[in-house]
Amino acid sequence: MPAPPPLINSSESTGRMKIVTRDYLFARGWKSAAPILLLLPGFGLYLLIAVGPSLATAVYSFTDATGIRGIAINWLGFENYDEFLFRGAASRDNIAALRRTLIFCFFVTTIQFCLGLLLAVLLNTRLRGRTIFRTIFFMPVILGVAIQGLIWKLFLLPGGGPVAEMFSWIGWSSEFLGGQPRQAFAWVIVVQIWANVGITMVIFLAGMQTIPESLYEAARIDGASGWQLFRNVTWPLLTPAVNTNFLLNIVGSLQAWQLFLVLIGYRPGTQVLGYLVFAEGFGQTSGSVSSAFRQGYAAAASIALFMLVLIIALAANAFVSRREKKYLS
Amino acid sequence: MTVVSQTSPSVGAGGTEPGEGPQVDRSGRTAARRRKIFSYAILLAFTALYVGPMLMLVLTSFKTLPEFFKNPTGLPESFGFDNFVEAWEQANIARYLVNSVFYTAVATAICVFTSVLVAFPIARGYFKGAKYVLLLYLVALFLPPALIPQFQLILNLGLFNTRTGFILLFLVNPIGLIILVNYIKSIPRELDESAAVDGCGYYRFIFKIVMPLIRPAIATVTVLHAIGIWNELVLPTIYLTSEDLYPVTRGLIVFEGLYGSNWPALAAAVLILMTPMLVLFLFLQRYIISGLTAGAVKG
Known about the structure:
By secondary structure, chain A is mainly α. Chain A is built from 14 helices and no strands.
């Protein structure tokens, strides 16, 4: 029975110990090739369908690739970018879409963040039925965009639908998703928040459960009121969850566009950048190889969106880590 | 000392504010009750926003078409299942369900299995450069979207509009891999050593020892990955053109396009297709919420 002396004796440096362990294992027990051979399928697939294509997006953005197999692809240099940002009416639409993406992100992030926090605060008490409430608010998350969208299309039925009825009681009327672009856009924001506030809430709740009850008791003994408890105990100690939700909401809403597809389709005056990429690359509603979609141009658009997400995420991250330093040190 | 003994009962009685004397204590209790009523009012208002659309869906699915046009919001006159039968027959629901189950099961099984085989040697550092491979999975979350080159790849492999090509798109999950790596790190290394010494092969070790030990992480990743595939709408829209291959999400949108304003039938189809997910959710809620939020947090 070979004892493992090299393992125990080599305590001079951890780096050395690792090497010894590996030699020991593979010399006496396992063939050294086995772990690598068995890793290859998974890792190869990862390179093939995720990393490779992801990096290739930048390459494609300099070409005139189409959606048809076998057509020669030509190098265009920066032409796609030039066209996307600076040329003609289309570029003005693109800039408008970019602005709309930012507006969408702003409203979704702030409202979803605040509502998620509110719901979490309310559900983090000994309230009866709080698991039922949690289940209800989380439910849309598991249904997916197709079902979320269809449910709301029906709920927002103009002329006699439930929301239309309620609006008519107070003398309002609305065309909802079929109305003015601005109006339809606002309703997509509503549905987006409705669908995703559950995740924000659950992350906040998980964060709140890590705050020890004794801190609240101590603060109460010092005479802190409900608001003071929240301001001075919950909020600072919730920092990790706050940061997570803040970043997730920003990045998620900048890239979200699928509810637009289900709820209103590709309508002028409502598109966001994500939808633009899809429409340019694959057609406005569905993919088919028969028409010549401009995939090179779409790749340029998707790089533009990626840059936007990257810049905003980095800025948000800098903001968040400053905040973390302030509260957690 | 007296302060503590006076406040502790009020803390015990539902977390109210502390009082300095009996009369303040009573007012604290009414304040707590008021706050409770206020909480319920807000929560119930939100609940209406969630239950309302569902209720509308259910009510609509029981109406006849003329009845729906006359009165979209009210109660149906009778509760028959005609719309469900119609939706089942017209919308190819059985086929979409079979397709979705097939794609989800096959892709998730392959993804989780190959991921464990990647995650284990990375977590252990059993090959040179394991750290860099892990880094490659971490940065994937910050790389540009792969949509267009992926399409070119599938197209040039001749896998456009095939089951194989579609499944291929769902075989990797970097977040899932990171979850697995972190979990495997919590399993003591000595286990590997004694297994190797006792002559247990690598493959058998992964199968018989590692897999059962990391079951919670496997469950999380499975849930995360499977729900992602089941709910995916964009990729089937891009990659599948024959209706025979559609999963439920794409099928629903097509059915909506064809049946446009026949909301009763459409509502019935939506209900049929969302029920399996809802039932699963109610039973596996804990796993599903932790799976999806683990994905969200790591992403």
